Amino acid sequence: MNGVPEKFELLDDDRTFAQRLPNGDLVKMDWHTDADVVSISHSQVLEDMACKLKANEEVRASLIRRIAVLEGRDPLLSLQVTQASGEPTTHDISVNDGALIKLLKCKLSGLEKSCTALKRRVNELERGTGDLNLRCEALQNELQRAQARSVLTRDVQSLVDGLAQALECKLCYCVTQDLHTLGCGHSFCSQCITGWFRALRDKFVERHDEWDGYHRPYGTEVEAGPTYTCPGCRSIHMINTCPQPSYKLVDVIRIVEGSIDLVDRSVPAAAWADFCRYDFSYSILLMPHLLSERRAGTLLNLIVPIVHAAVARLRIFRSLSLALTRHVISYGQRETIEGIVEDIDRELDEFEIALSKLCRGRCQPRSGWRSGFPMGAPSGDWEQATFDEALRLKEQHSKAKQMVARPISESGLTAQQYAECERVVREWLTGPAGPSSASIE
User: Fold this and answer.
1) Beta bridge partners of 282
2) Residues 361, 292: one domain?
3) In a shared domain, residues 383 and 278
4) For the segment 18-34, what is each residue's pLDDT rounded down to a tens digit?
5) Distance CA 434, CA 29 (A)
6) Domains identified in the chain, total number
7) Is 373 exposed, middle or buried (0-12, 13-18, 19+ CB in 10 A)?
8) In the predicted model, what is the mean pLDDT of residues 218-227?
9) pLDDT over threshold 70, residue 324
């Protein structure tokens, strides 16, 4: 009968089935297919089951009262029920009352079984509701994770786009791994910046056929050479015979890969990161100050622009190693820094010997001359001109030192902060392989 349970009959409306009791009575119940049950909410089903349980309980209570009346267990109740229903009293009941009592007990037993089945169904629905709630909660959590992944994907894409824009060459607008950074801070790929400087050189050669290709110091009688400018800001730069690649790209890759940590326990994270990641400029005018610097990156950020401006104005002689030389401080560059220091010390010694020969018999170099040049009055036109140049350099050196010392004095750091930064810088410069792992968290 279309999936109707055994011992049940499907009524005419095709939506209700009934169980026929032994006395011939029918107990009606609603019947739903699996598709119908799925389409009905659990709350509605539970409400229907509760109504059925209530109705069955009422019928069961009525049957119990009738059985009690028939058995004469409660004469008062028998009188009330018979008077209310208009039925004859127990004295008028025929000898067939035993059969009626038996029938009513069968009905009561059927109702009790029906109530038990309904309670079991209610319990199953309640358990199903709990399972559905757990599943809904799991789906909500999965949805939240998916939304978080979507936001993270957008953030990562934005980060990648920002990195690509920051690392692209401003001449060819291509992302490359051989970026070279000029002293002004602008970065270009090796091919583009080499082509740019070559074009400037070719234009200079066209105008000056007598130029021999040697980059002499500015201010000499012979033409100094072509002026090399930044393609972005047109600032003038001296050409280094060994172009320095940009370590910024390598550092960014290491940061993204999580292979380095620029945080130190004692020095502020921003200052230590700036000290290790920024491009710095070195010359014999600035090396003593930078090596003894006690504020790492933040103070150097104030010094570097002043140094660039001072060098551009002073046009320091390359033959005296006063030209600006760019180097990048980063992990693994300790040997490079030591080489810079040795080269500068060697050039300073050579300059000291030259001045001693220049001033032989007329002036004696003083101890600690690196804070200033020797004083004296050498004889001879050539010697006098050379000595005047030395005095001019001494004056420029003093001005540069004052320009560097001004932001140091105005920084407002405490003595403890100065000492702590100085300790970290010196340990990093003199350590066996850069900063020790114990000093970096």
Assistant:
1) 325
2) yes
3) yes
4) 555 555 655 555 544 44
5) 86
6) 3
7) buried
8) 59
9) no
